[in-house]
Amino acid sequence: MTCESPNKIRSELLAILFLALLCTCKPAKQDFDFEEFQILMTTVAEGWSTQNTDQALSSFHKDAIYVEPPSSQYFQGHEQLRPFFAQLTAAHKMEFHNLWFNKETQSGVGEYTFSYGRDTATVGLVAVELENGKIKFWREYQTVGPTDFHQFLAIENKNWQWHIGNWPPPKISEELSELEGVKYLEVTKNQTKQSPKLPLVIALHWMGATPKDFVGFVSAFKVPVRILFVQAPYTYESGYSFFEIEPANYYELGPQEKNRAILKEAGKLSKFIAAATKKYDPPIKPVIIGASQGGDLSYIFATKYKHLISTACPLLATLDQELMQSTGQQIDCSVPIQVFHGTNDSVVSIESVRSQVNYLKTRNCQVTLNVYAGCGHEISKEMQQDYMNYIHQVIQK
Fold this sequence. Notes:
By secondary structure, this protein is of the alpha/beta class. The chain has helices spanning 6-24, 34-49, 53-57, 77-86, 149-153, 211-215, 255-280, 293-304, 321-327, 350-362, 381-395; strands spanning 60-68, 73-76, 92-102, 107-116, 120-131, 134-146, 177-179, 182-189, 200-204, 225-230, 234-236, 239-241, 287-291, 311-315, 337-342, 367-372. The chain has an eight-stranded mixed beta sheet with strand order 7-8-10-9-13-14-15-16, sandwiched between helices. Strands 2-1-6-5-4-3 form a six-stranded mixed beta sheet. Strands 11-12 form a two-stranded antiparallel sheet.
C-alpha cells in the first residue's frame, strides 16, 4: 500500500466533480425531428398571420439571414427582421400546405401561400437551414397566383403561357424600326405583325435598359396585341436614357431646366405616338406604360397629351411637385392613371408618390395608386400581374 499526498487526492476529487457537473449540464438542442420542425415553421406562420412579431421572431436565430434570390429581398438578424415583420396587417395570412425535413442536415422545405386579402396571393417554396433549433437561413422562391391553393395547382381551365402548342417560342427580332426619329422594337402577341387593327401598347423602359430588357415585363398577354418597346435616345452605360446625362446630367438640373428637358422629350415621343397610331390603326387609343424614367414620361402623357392615349401606367415613378404645379391649368387628366409603386423604393420614395397622387386628385384626375408592401425600386410579380390585368381590361373593352 502506498500513501498519496492530500494535494493529489484533492486534485483528483475536483476533477471527478468537474466531470460530474459536465454530465449533468444539458446542451442546447441541435437535432430537431420533423414534429419539432413543424412547430417551428407553424410558429412563424401564426406570428405573421396574427401580427405577433415577437412570436414570428422566436423561430429565427438572432443572426438569421432572410433572402429572396436573386435580388428581391435581403434582411439579416432580428434588428432588421423586426421592422420587416412589423409592417404586416390583419389582411396578411401565411399558411404552410406541405413541409419536408431532413434530420441529418437539419434543413427543410415548406410550400406556402402568403395572402393579403385579395383574390391573388404569393405562393412559393422556402428552404430553411437550422442552427441550434432556430432558423439560421431562410430563402424563398415565389410567384403570384390564386389565393385558393387547389385552384393554384389545378391543371384544367387555365390559359397556360407555355405548352406544346407554342413551344419553342419564336425568336424576338432585335431589329429596330423607326418612326419620327424614334427607334422601337415591335412585338406582337397571339397574332402576326401583319395583322391589322391590333390594340397598341407603348412601353418605355427604365434608365440604362434596352427595349429588349423590358419585353419580359410587358408581354404576358392572352389576347392579340401589338407592343412597341421604345428605345430611349441617349446612350447610358450598356443601355439608354430618355434624358441627357452628358454634358449636363438631367438629375442635377434645377427645376426649370429639368421641366424643359422632360417636356422636350415628351414632345418628341408625342409625334412618335401619333405616327404609330396612324400606321397601326389600333381599335382604341394606345396604352402607355413606363418604368422609372419611362414612368415619369407616362405621367406627362396622362396630364398633357391625353388626346393621344387611352390610359397611363407609371411604374416606380414620380414627377417633381414643381413640375406638376407649373403646368397648372394645363393639367387635364381625362384619361385614367394607374400608378404602381413599392413601399420600400429607395430611389423614388412612396411618400413623394402619394403626395403627387393627392395633388393630381385635387386637379380632378382619375388616378389610382396601387401599393406593394416591401417592394423596392423593382417590378414585383404581384405588381406585374396587376398592371397586366388592368391593361387586359382596357384593351378588351
